[in-house]
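Most newcomers find our protein records easier to grasp once they have seen one. Nothing more is needed to start thinking about how sequence determines fold. Here is such a record, shown just as it appears in the course material:
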Amino acid sequence: ANYLLLALYFQKKEFDKFREQLNQFINNKSYDPYLYIIKAKFELYNNNPEAAKVLFSQALKYNRQHIAALAGLAELAYKDHGYSLSRLYYQQIITIDNSTIDAYLALSNMAEEEADLLSAENYLKQNYQNNKGDIGNEIKALTALVKFFDKHKMAAKKALIAKDALNNKPDNLLILS
């Protein structure tokens, strides 16, 4: 109910009420990492990345393995050109949940920006392997890998991964498409 009330205030753009209510919830339940993440996202919405960084870190004090907080810190580090720190956060996310697609995509993008195509490809392959069985995530991972192969003109690798996907699920319309 607390989160719905916050969402309602935000949706109606009643930001003063949103801020006031959020601060009250934090004062009453200061151990809830989601409240700090919501406040961090609000700070990002208001273009205040330093405050967001502090709030994401605060959320991690209550849950060291909170993926949303780690992702927020990783994204902020990346935007500040702290690629090694960003990479560490994303790798920590994968350690917690090895099927987190966004972490693999970010790691692959960073490797690609550094002209390390082998690492970029390996992150995308790991992503695909770790998401087999969850058809929604598997399709997202497969699509990212195929786009990478297209972008870098790797037709043979694209054909192999398509063959693998079709062998695993020959009747799935999403895989066929």
In short: Residues 31 and 127 are 32 Å apart (CA to CA). The chain has a mean pLDDT of 93.
